[in-house]
Specification:
six-stranded parallel beta sheet, alpha/beta, 18 helices, nine-stranded mixed beta sheet, single chain, binds zinc ion
Length: about 550
C-alpha cells in the first residue's frame, strides 16, 4: 500500500488563511450585511403606543411590539427602528389573538375559510372536535385542512362519541373487550394524528350510552399522549351536580386534565346550583385534580331539537328506530311525557316561547319561529303539552336545531368570575345571512369585553383577555401562542376597549362584532379597516408531546 506523503501538507495549507484571504472574507461579509440592511427595515411590523394586555392577566402596560415573519421578536417601551409597516394603536388595546377552545367550525370552514365571524372578534385559533364529535379518522380531514388557504389557525380533539359510533354504531350497551380495544386504538391514532385530547358528549347519542368507566379507559389513552379531556356533560339540568362529579372522576381516574365545557345550569328549578358545581371544581383542584371550565356569555343554549327534547333511550339506533317508536302510540305517549317535563323544567324553561328554531333543513322558513309559533301553526294552543306534540312533529319531519332560553344571569356571572373558567364560544362559522344561528358565533368574545368587562365589571379587562388567550392556549399545550411575549407566534388582536361590542342578537344574529381595528395571524394582517384581507396565514395545529 502506498501513501501519498504530499497530501498532508497540502491539506494543512488549505486550512490556514493568509491575511489576504481574511481580508477578502471580511470584505464579503461586510458587503453582505450592508446589502441586508439596504434590502429592508429591521422589522416587518411594529405596533406602537397601545396598551399591551399581554394575556397573562397582569395589568396593561404601554409599549411597542415588533414582529418579524410570524414571530414577535421585540417588546419595548419604544422601538424606533424602521419597519415595513407601523401601526399606531394609541388609545387601543393590543392583545394576543383569542383561542376558542370549543367551536363547530368544521361545518363551514371549507365554505368560509376566512371565518369572518370569529376573526372580527379577535379570534385567531379555533379548536374543533368538541362534544364527543369529530371526524374518525382525523388524518384525511386534517390533510384537507392543510391545503385549504385559511385566515385562522385550527386544531382538533378526537371525539369519543364518533369513535364509539365507528366501532359499535348507535347501540345502547357496554362494549365487548375487542370493541373497547378498537376504540382505544382509534383514540390512540387520533392522538398520533395530532389531536389535543379526547372530547366527550355524554349528553348525546351515542356518548350517553357509555358508562363512566368506558370513558375513563379512552381518557387514559389520550392522557398518555399529553391530551386533555373536555366534556359536554351527561346532564346540565337536574343532574348537573352528578355530571360535574363524573367529569372530575374521568380526569382523576383517567390521569389527565379534565374540563367542563360550556358550563351552564339549565332550567329554573336548577338555577343557583353553580354554587355547588364550582365548589366541586375547587375541591377537586385542592386535592390535585386538574379540572377547569369553559363558558359562553349568553343565557340561552343551542343544540338539536331532537337531542334536547327527546329522552336518550328514545334516540337509540338512528332515525328509522326513532320514527318507529313515535309511530307506536304507547311508546309515543311515554316519549311525550318526557318531552313535556323537559319543556316545563329544563331546556324549555317552562314556556314553549323559550325555544326558538335556529335552522331547519326541510323548511328554512321556520328559522326564527318559536316552538309556540310552530304549535299555533299546527292548529293548537301553545300549551306545554301541545308544544311537546309540535316538538315530536319537528323530529318526525327531519329535526331542526334550536335555541333554548333557560339559563340565568346569576349563574352565568358566578361561573365567569371563577378563576378556572375560560371563554369558548361553542359557535360555528355561519353562512352570513343564512338561518337563525345562536349569536354566540358572532359575539362571544366581544360580548365578554363589552358586557362583562365594560358594563357590568364582572371581571377585569386583563382577566377577560387571559380567559380568552393564554388560559385556553396553555390548557391544550399550545405554549407558543396566547401571550404577547418575545418568541411567541404573532397572533394579535387590536381593539378599542371603549367601543368593542357584540352586535349579534337572538333576533338579528347575522351581525359582526365591532371595535376591532386589526387582527394578525402568524404575523400577517387578516382583518383591518373593517374588512377581511386576502392573506390566508392560518395553520393547522397539532398536539406535540
Ligand atoms: Zn356542546
Amino acid at each position: 500500500m502506498s501513501i501519498d506523503q504530499s497530501a498532508r501538507p497540502r491539506r494543512r495549507y488549505r486550512l490556514v488563511c493568509t491575511p489576504i484571504e481574511l481580508c477578502i472574507v471580511t470584505f464579503l461579509f461586510l458587503t453582505f450585511t450592508q446589502t441586508q440592511i439596504a434590502q429592508g427595515p429591521a422589522y416587518d411590523l411594529i405596533i406602537r403606543n397601545g396598551r399591551i394586555v399581554d394575556g397573562s392577566g397582569s395589568p396593561w402596560y404601554r409599549g411597542d411590539i415588533a414582529v418579524r415573519g410570524d414571530t414577535i421578536v421585540r417588546i419595548a417601551a419604544r422601538i424606533s427602528e424602521p419597519a415595513t409597516r407601523v401601526i399606531d394603536a394609541a388609545g387601543q388595546v393590543i392583545a394576543p389573538g383569542f383561542v376558542d377552545i370549543h367551536t363547530h367550525a368544521r361545518g363551514a370552514i371549507f365554505e368560509v375559510p376566512t371565518a369572518d365571524n370569529y376573526v372580527r372578534q379577535g379570534v385567531t385559533t379555533l379548536m374543533e372536535g368538541p362534544d364527543g364529535s369529530s371526524p374518525v379518522p382525523l388524518k384525511p380531514w386534517l390533510a384537507r385542512l392543510e391545503v385549504l388557504p385559511k385566515s385562522v389557525n385550527i386544531g382538533t380533539f378526537i371525539g369519543q362519541g364518533s369513535v364509539r359510533a365507528a366501532v359499535m354504531g348507535d347501540v345502547n350497551r357496554v362494549p365487548t373487550a375487542p370493541e373497547l380495544d378498537k376504540m382505544r386504538a382509534l383514540v390512540e391514532q387520533g392522538m398520533k394524528d395530532g389531536a389535543f385530547g379526547l372530547s366527550t358528549g355524554l349528553f348525546y347519542v351515542p356518548g350517553n350510552f357509555s358508562t363512566t368507566s368506558e370513558v375513563v379507559e379512552l381518557a387514559r389513552v389520550a392522557g398518555r399522549f399529553g391530551g386533555i379531556h373536555i366534556s359536554h356533560m351527561r346532564e346540565e339540568a337536574s343532574g348537573v351536580i352528578d355530571s360535574v362529579k363524573e367529569t372530575i372522576a374521568i380526569g382523576e381516574q383517567g390521569g389527565l386534565p379534565t374540563q367542563v365545557t360550556h358550563h351552564k345550569i339549565i332550567g329554573p328549578a336548577n338555577w343557583g346550583r353553580s354554587v355547588d358545581t364550582l365548589k366541586l371544581i375547587d375541591e377537586a383542584r385542592a386535592r390535585g385534580v386538574d379540572a377547569t371550565i369553559d363558558q359562553y356569555p349568553y343565557t340561552a343554549s343551542s343544540t338539536s331539537i331532537q337531542a334536547a327534547l327527546l329522552p336518550a333511550w328514545a334516540q337509540e339506533g338512528g332515525r328509522e328506530e326513532i320514527l318507529k317508536r313515535l309511530r307506536d302510540p304507547a311508546i309515543r305517549a311515554k316519549i311525550k311525557a318526557e318531552t313535556i317535563r323537559i319543556i316545563r323544567n329544563e331546556r324549555g324553561g317552562g314556556d314553549p316561547k323559550n325555544i326558538v328554531i335556529a335552522r331547519c333543513g326541510w323548511d328554512a322558513s321556520l328559522a326564527g319561529k318559536t316552538l309556540a309559533d310552530v304549535t299555533r301553526v299546527r292548529g293548537m294552543e301553545p300549551s306545554v303539552e301541545n308544544a311537546a306534540e309540535a316538538g315530536l312533529w319537528i323530529v318526525e319531519q327531519g329535526g331542526c336545531s334550536g335555541i333554548f332560553h333557560a339559563i340565568n344571569e346569576a349563574d352565568l356571572e358566578r361561573i365567569l368570575r371563577h378563576p378556572a373558567t375560560m371563554i369558548g364560544s361553542d359557535g360555528e362559522i355561519p353562512i352570513f345571512g343564512k338561518d337563525n344561528p345562536h349569536p354566540r358565533s358572532y359575539g362571544t368574545f366581544a360580548r365578554v369585553l363589552a358586557v362583562y368587562v365594560r358594563e357590568r365589571k364582572t371581571i377585569t379587562l386583563e382577566d377577560a383577555v387571559r380567559k380568552m388567550s393564554s388560559f385556553p392556549a396553555g390548557r391544550i399545550g399550545l405554549f407558543d401562542r396566547g401571550l404577547l411575549r418575545v418568541g411567541m407566534k404573532a397572533d394579535i388582536a387590536i381593539f378599542d376597549p371603549a367601543k368593542v361590542r357584540d352586535a349579534a342578537t337572538f333576533d338579528k344574529p347575522h351581525q359582526y362584532a365591532e371595535g376591532f381595528s386589526a387582527v394578525f395571524v402568524n404575523g400577517q394582517v387578516v382583518f383591518e379597516n373593517g374588512s377581511m384581507t386576502t392573506a390566508r396565514p392560518g395553520k393547522v395545529l397539532y398536539k406535540r408531546m
